[in-house]
Write a structure and sequence with these properties.
Number of domains: 7
Distance between the termini: 76 Å
Oligomer: single chain
Length: 1106
């Protein structure tokens, strides 16, 4: 919509709205006027709202407005008249009598009006919103959703607007003042009601009811497909696969026409991994398959080892010749194989219809193709007992002994049914009766093992070798005994089989029968009657009775060896039931479980020898034994495997850890036997169970630490996502928390509620845990899932004491474990609260940083008096020096911190402590020109006569400062303080320099800038002390030499007046005048002799500021 169109709409809407408001206000004049004006106001408001919202086309000319008014006038006129007619009698009766009957009648009338409007609510909204004729919209009500609850809201709005109009138009009902008030309210409320009415969502359309017809079962197939609803481009392929899986061919074709990719493959995360052609190949309707072929889909492209032809032959028991024919006609390869090596013919032989196999054979499918098990299609047909297909293949040349494959006769002999028809069919087609497979097994072996007596008879009648042995040395007799096939054994005995035969492991028929899944004592008795020895041993030295005992077949044990000691549980049962001569068969493991459960240990050792380590380990998961420490100890001492997993995949250690406090005794037994708790999540299982059972005793904490020391995983979270640290905080186990933090667990790991351990410690009010977290670097700024920080949690629960540990505004926490160097760092930042917290967290007050500076030294040097005061109150050493030798006092002096100096002196700082070079704090203060600090130091009994390694005294240091000083008052105050304290102005330091010489620049380089007036004031002060002017330094420079060297004419004059020797020569025999001339100070040289007219000092000229 352009700006011009939008502006035109707004103008039209405004005009219509103004007209509606004016008409509504006119309703306050009289009831007759109100009836007309409020009827006309409804279309005006409807047009204004629809034009403003853009739902109705803007009329191009005034005639179009006249065309839009009749539907609106008609519907509102009908509505107003109908409501007036409904309520006229009840309302009149209510006004006249005020009876209950009249009130109820009025209520019924209003309810009827509301229900009528509800049944027609789409008509009102569409006419108001879109316009148009009433007749078609009235007929369309039959196909619309009329019972929607939003329709009741629309009906209520229409009823309210009609009621307002009827109230204003009702004669004699309202007074004049009330009428005008109601008219004003109508001018405001009616536009809002029309807006809500038009914003009500339009109803959905339903199909029109069709007349009842006779059932037509082909109507769905004959019906035209519904148009395809809009589908997003990325949803085309998933929708196409879903349509193919559900057999909706019409929709699949529509999706292909809409642009779905026919070459697409299923996504890896889909459960059904069949390709699109494979899905189409198994559908009864082949239109999708043909469409894919038309779209050049490769019918031989395998996906996950499956081609469309393999799918068509595999997924139908009755065969799908039409699909197979379509695929073969379009180039499908009948030699393709799946992941198991099966070709389409392998699958086709399972079908009851030979038509598919015939099609494949006509397409040159290999008759003797072998799968991964070495089976040909003929062998597969015999294996499933499909003799019809077997005959079909044999007649077309299939071999009974394919090269490199298993003989087909073995598959026919080992089939599920005892049907000799297949064997006879193969023998009829010249199959060798004694053919062997790779394991040297014959058809007679397979038939005997499967218990097929009729097939055994057929094979023996054909001349099968009765004593043939496979690679394991077993004969058909031994195979029949291995599965306890009594009928086959009798048939073989009748054929004079060798009943004393043993296999390669030395096991005879009795021993093999005892190990069978199901064997009866009668069979064992029959074998014993056949003189099969029961006391022979196999290669491992076991007898048949041992095998029977391991299987818990005590009746057979008693039959084989009556002297064999039976378990007490078995013998007791037999004794309790005198009428029962045969003991019940109960496995040793069951008897062992019962003995351990009831504490009857007699004879259990013998039972344990009959069980393997894995079987004994399985008892560690038993519900009645797992929590019994004595039973667990007994099982472990008798060889139970502690790594056996239960149905959930847990080893006994982990299963017990999940049970918490009740399993601790058993867990301690496991640990004593060296069972490792290593593995992901072991510790969290224990902690989660303790949290669940509210068990937080110190003994359990000690056990958790022991588990960690034995190798438990401290990092993995629980099944619900709670890390070990969070669980330890919930339990309040400080030692465990400290162990975890020391070993590097994630301090910021979130639990299942999105909270860190610091959040939990704060929320639970565990101050000790909170301090521990902060000490190890937990961030107070971390946010939980709801956006709260630990500080916010502390404030929300009113714990100001906890909030103090989380508020690090000036010196922020370093996001790592706190170190001793953090105390000096916080002190350097001047954060007294941070220093206090760090010391309270256990860091020493005298901790040093990389430069060896203590927190007190850093605070003193930084001028942080509050930190210094706090540190001194916490016992910080005021004399602790850094690596460079600086002390807190020297740092405070260096940074001119007078108050800190006073605090340190009061705390007992050694005032005569020597800095590197033998310098004292007083010398340092003098060298810096700090008279107030010098005065404090002297008041504190600083030695004014002390000398450093160069022999300099405090007055010498003050003189050094004086040469470069710019503040005459400070220099004089400094000199006065020292001289009044007894400093010797005549003392000579190393190199024979006096304070006077140093003040005149004896240690300064020539040309060093100085303030001559300030130096002159200092010299005057020293001259007042009658200092000697005959002194000279190691160069022989006296006072005049130095004044001439630095170009100081005023000082030269003052020294000459004071009596300095102008002819004094230095070590190079130069006078002061010669020094001045050498330096170019002509005016200074002129001070020693009368000045020449017009000559001035070039050096001074250049130095002057102009």
């Amino acid at each position: 919509m352009t700006e011009a169109t939008r502006a035109a709409r707004l103008r039209a809407a405004a005009l219509a709205g103004v007209a509606g408001v004016a008409l509504a206000l006119l309703g306050g004049a009289s009831h007759s006027v109100a009836a007309l004006t409020l009827w006309l106001a409804q279309p005006a408001f409807a047009l204004a709202v629809s034009w403003a919202r853009g739902t109705r086309a803007l009329p191009a000319q005034p005639r179009a407005v006249a065309q839009a008014l009749p539907p609106l006038l008609a519907i509102w006129g009908v509505g107003l008249l109908a409501l007036a007619a409904l309520i006229s009698w009840p309302l009149t009766a209510l006004r006249d009598s005020g009876s209950l009957a009249a009130a109820l009648a009025l209520s019924v009338a209003v309810s009827a009006a509301l229900l009528g409007l509800w049944r027609t609510w789409p008509l009102w909204g569409e006419v108001e919103r879109d316009g148009g004729a009433l007749a078609p919209r009235w007929h369309a009500l039959a196909t619309q959703e009329l019972h929607a609850w939003r329709g009741l809201l629309a009906a209520a709005l229409v009823l309210a607007m009609c009621t307002l109009a009827v109230a204003l138009a009702w004669p004699g009902w309202l007074s004049s003042g009330l009428r005008w008030s109601l008219a004003i309210a109508a001018s405001v409320l009616l536009p809002a009601a029309h807006l809500l009415l038009q914003r009500t969502a339009a109803p959905t359309r339903s199909d029109a009811p069709a007349p009842l017809q006779a059932a037509d079962f082909f109507s769905e197939a004959a019906a035209e497909p519904r148009p395809l609803e809009p589908v997003a481009q990325h949803q085309l392929v998933p929708e196409l696969f879903e349509a193919a899986r559900s057999g909706r061919v019409d929709r699949a074709l529509q999706l292909l026409d809409a642009g779905a990719d026919p070459q697409a493959m299923p996504l890896p995360e889909w459960r059904d991994q069949r390709s699109l052609p494979a899905l189409a190949a198994v559908l009864p309707d082949l239109r999708l398959l043909r469409e894919l072929i038309v779209r050049r889909v490769d019918v031989n492209q395998p996906h996950r080892g499956m081609t469309p032809l393999l799918a068509a032959t595999r997924d139908s028991w009755h065969g799908r010749p039409d699909a197979v024919m379509t695929l073969l006609a379009n180039g499908a390869d009948p030699r393709a194989s799946d992941n198991d090596g099966n070709t389409p013919l392998h699958h086709a032989v399972r079908s009851s219809d030979p038509g598919v196999a015939a099609l494949l054979r006509d397409a040159a499918a290999e008759l003797d193709a072998l799968n991964n098990d070495g089976l040909s299609p003929l062998a597969m047909a015999c294996q499933v007992g499909n003799w019809r297909l077997a005959k079909f293949l044999l007649e077309r040349g299939a071999h009974s002994e394919p090269e490199g494959g298993a003989p087909v006769l073995l598959a026919a002999a080992g089939t599920e049914e005892d049907d000799p028809a297949g064997v006879q069919l193969l023998l009829k087609h010249k199959a060798r009766v004694d053919a062997r497979d790779r394991q040297r097994r014959s058809a007679l072996h397979e038939a005997a093992l499967a218990g097929h007596g009729d097939i055994v008879e057929a094979l023996l009648a054909a001349g099968a070798n009765l004593e043939a042995r496979d690679l394991l040395g077993r004969t058909p007799w031994l195979d029949a005994a291995r599965q306890a096939r009594s009928a086959v054994l009798e048939r073989l005995v009748a054929r004079k089989a060798d009943v004393l035969a043993v296999d390669g492991d030395g096991r005879n028929a009795v021993m093999l029968a005892c190990a069978a899944d199901r064997v009866s004592p009668a069979l064992i008795r029959r074998l014993l009657d056949l003189q099969v020895p029961a006391d022979s041993t196999d290669a491992q030295g076991r007898r048949a009775v041992d095998v029977a005992a391991e299987a818990g077949r005590w009746a057979i044990v008693q039959l084989l060896d009556p002297a064999y000691p039976l378990p007490s549980a078995v013998s007791d049962t037999q004794g309790d039931s005198p009428g029962v001569a045969v003991p019940p068969d109960r496995p040793p493991l069951v008897l062992l479980r019962e003995g351990l459960q009831f504490g009857q240990r007699d004879g259990l050792t013998a039972l344990a020898r009959l069980c393997g380590p894995e079987e004994l380990g399985g008892l560690l998961h038993d519900a009645h034994l797992a929590l019994n420490p004595e039973a667990v100890d007994w099982l472990l001492r008798h060889g139970a495997d502690a790594e056996v997993r239960d149905a959930c995949g847990d080893v006994p250690m982990f299963a017990l850890l999940s049970r918490g406090v009740e399993a601790v005794p058993a867990l301690q037994v496991l640990l004593r036997h060296g069972v490792s708790p290593a593995g992901a999540g072991g510790l969290t299982r224990l902690l989660s169970a303790c949290v669940q059972h509210d068990a937080a005793s110190r003994g359990l904490e000690q056990f958790a630490l022991e588990v960690l020391e034995r190798g438990a995983d401290p990092f993995a979270s629980s099944a619900v996502g709670d890390p070990p640290l969070s669980l330890a905080v919930r339990l309040g186990w400080l030692r465990l928390q400290h162990w975890l933090l020391e070993h590097g667990v994630d301090r910021e790991a979130r639990d299942s509620h999105g909270m860190t351990a610091l959040h939990l410690a704060t929320a639970l009010g565990r101050e000790a845990s909170l301090k521990l977290m902060v000490r190890h670097g937990a961030s107070p700024e971390a946010r939980a899932a709801d956006g709260q920080t630990p500080l916010g949690v502390a404030l929300s629960i009113g714990r100001r004491d906890l909030a103090d540990w989380l508020d690090w505004r000036i010196w922020p926490l370093p996001r790592r474990s706190l170190r001793e160097a953090d105390v000096p760092a916080a002190a350097m930042a001047g954060d007294t609260d941070a220093v206090r917290r760090l010391i309270d967290l256990g860091l020493p007050a005298d901790a040093t940083d990389a430069q060896g500076c203590t927190a007190l030294l850093r605070a003193a040097g930084g001028g942080h008096l509050g930190v210094v005061t706090h540190l001194l109150g916490r016992g910080a050493d005021p004399q602790r020096a850094s690596t460079s030798g600086a002390t807190p006092l020297s740092a405070a002096v260096s940074m001119r911190q007078t108050e800190i100096v006073a605090a340190l002196l009061q705390a007992g700082a050694q005032i005569e402590h020597r800095l590197p070079g033998g310098v004292t704090v007083l010398m340092l203060a003098c060298a810096l020109g700090l008279p107030d600090i010098v005065a404090r130091l002297l008041t504190a009994a600083a030695d004014v006569h002390a000398n450093d390694d160069q022999g300099l005294a405090p007055l010498h240091c003050a003189a050094l400062y004086g040469f470069t000083a710019r503040d005459k008052t400070r220099l004089l105050a400094l000199l006065d303080t020292l001289l009044l304290a007894g400093a010797d102005p005549q003392s000579l330091a190393g190199g024979r320099v006096s304070p006077l010489l140093l003040l005149l620049g004896a240690r300064a380089e020539p040309g060093t800038a100085c303030d001559e007036q300030v130096v002159l004031a200092g010299v005057e002060r020293l001259l007042d002390e009658d200092v000697a002017l005959e002194v000279a330094d190691q160069r022989g420079f006296g006072p005049l030499h130095l004044a001439a060297l630095h170009g100081l004419p005023l000082l030269v004059q003052r020294l000459l007046r004071a009596g300095a020797d102008a002819d004094h020569r230095d070590a190079l025999n130069r006078t002061p005048r010669e020094i001045a001339i050498m330096r170019g100070f002509i005016d200074v040289a002129g001070q020693f002799e009368p000045a020449l007219p017009g000559v001035s000092s070039m050096a001074r000229f250049l130095r002057e500021v102009r």
